[in-house]
């Protein structure tokens, strides 16, 4: 499986080794990652870049980590260590896929493995139902910023919304997705930004649509601002 992790295959597409080239021409070669869970299953992913500031990418159900496209190289070139895993039952991760256990999978991906050195910042970038799980997780602390692509509102969820900095991005031409994002924003406290794009695309599809460049630019800029805010707060202590 080790070779398979490095030479991923997207259904209906061509195999590739995960190497990404940023705008400066630098090539980022990923390091294969594995995460053993308590049930014995293995989650598989990749890491680009080395830094004490971690960005964890969590795709929505129904896709895999390749849905992030060139975002890992953009974030790595901005000074972050970028980690992305396939959810259980997706991509190269082991079965089974249990939607009711998505929250546990997101928690394991974010906190379930050491990064080799103490992180000075942990940031989540997640899409769809995974973004909702990320919001719940961030409410428990330990997260320094969160980007949510088309988060899904759950009326029955009474867990407090986190106060960490949050950027939500949504395609405004899908009324249901826009309503979900506005409902979450209404419950939020702390620094919260809702950015809408004039498209019906949602989740990681926002990255590859006609507004993908603006979406990626906003994401990188927001995370940089989170780091600056965190640094200023540390210096004032």
Task: Write the SSE topology.
Layout: H1 2-6, E1 20-21, E2 27-28, E3 31-36, E4 42-48, E5 53-58, H2 71-77, E6 81-85, H3 102-111, E7 121-127, H4 129-138, E8 145-149, E9 166-171, H5 175-187, E10 192-197, H6 212-236
Parallel strand pairs: 5-6, 5-7, 7-8, 8-9, 9-10
Antiparallel strand pairs: 1-2, 3-4, 4-6
CATH class: Alpha Beta
> Which residue ranges are poorly predicted, with pLDDT under 50 across at least 5 consecutive positions?
1-15
* Tally of individual domains: 1
Number of strands: 10
CATH topology: Rossmann fold
Write out the CATH superfamily name: Alpha/Beta hydrolase fold, catalytic domain
Roughly what is the average pLDDT, rounded to an integer?
Answer: 86
Shape: globular
Helix proportion range: 25-40%
Order of helices and strands: HEEEEEHEHEHEEHEH
- Give the N-to-C terminal Cα separation: 47 Å
Q: Could you give a short account of the major beta sheet? A: 8 strands, mixed
Q: What's the architecture in CATH terms?
A: 3-Layer(aba) Sandwich
**For the largest beta sheet, what order do the strands appear in spatially?**
3-4-6-5-7-8-9-10
- Beta fraction: 15-25%
Number of helices in the DSSP assignment: 6
């Amino acid at each position: 499986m080790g070779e398979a992790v490095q030479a991923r295959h997207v259904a209906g597409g061509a195999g590739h080794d995960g190497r990404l080239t940023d705008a400066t021409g630098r090539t980022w070669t990923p390091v294969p990652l594995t995460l053993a869970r308590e049930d014995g299953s293995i989650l598989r992913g990749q890491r680009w870049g080395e830094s004490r500031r971690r960005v964890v990418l969590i795709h929505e159900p129904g896709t895999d980590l390749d849905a992030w496209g060139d975002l890992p190289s953009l974030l790595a070139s901005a000074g972050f260590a970028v980690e992305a895993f396939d959810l259980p039952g997706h991509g190269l991760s082991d079965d089974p896929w249990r939607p009711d256990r998505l929250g546990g999978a997101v928690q394991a991906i974010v906190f379930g493995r050491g990064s080799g050195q103490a992180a000075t910042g942990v940031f989540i970038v997640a899409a769809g139902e995974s973004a909702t799980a990320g919001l719940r997780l961030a409410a428990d602390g330990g997260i320094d910023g969160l980007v949510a692509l088309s988060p899904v509102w759950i009326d029955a969820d009474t867990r407090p919304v986190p106060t960490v900095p949050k950027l939500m991005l949504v395609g405004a031409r899908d009324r249901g997705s826009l309503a979900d994002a506005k409902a979450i924003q209404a419950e939020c406290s702390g620094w919260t930004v809702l950015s809408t794009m004039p498209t019906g695309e949602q989740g990681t599809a926002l990255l590859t649509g006609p507004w993908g460049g603006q979406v990626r630019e906003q994401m990188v800029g927001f995370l940089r601002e989170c780091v600056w805010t965190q640094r200023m707060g540390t210096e004032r202590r």
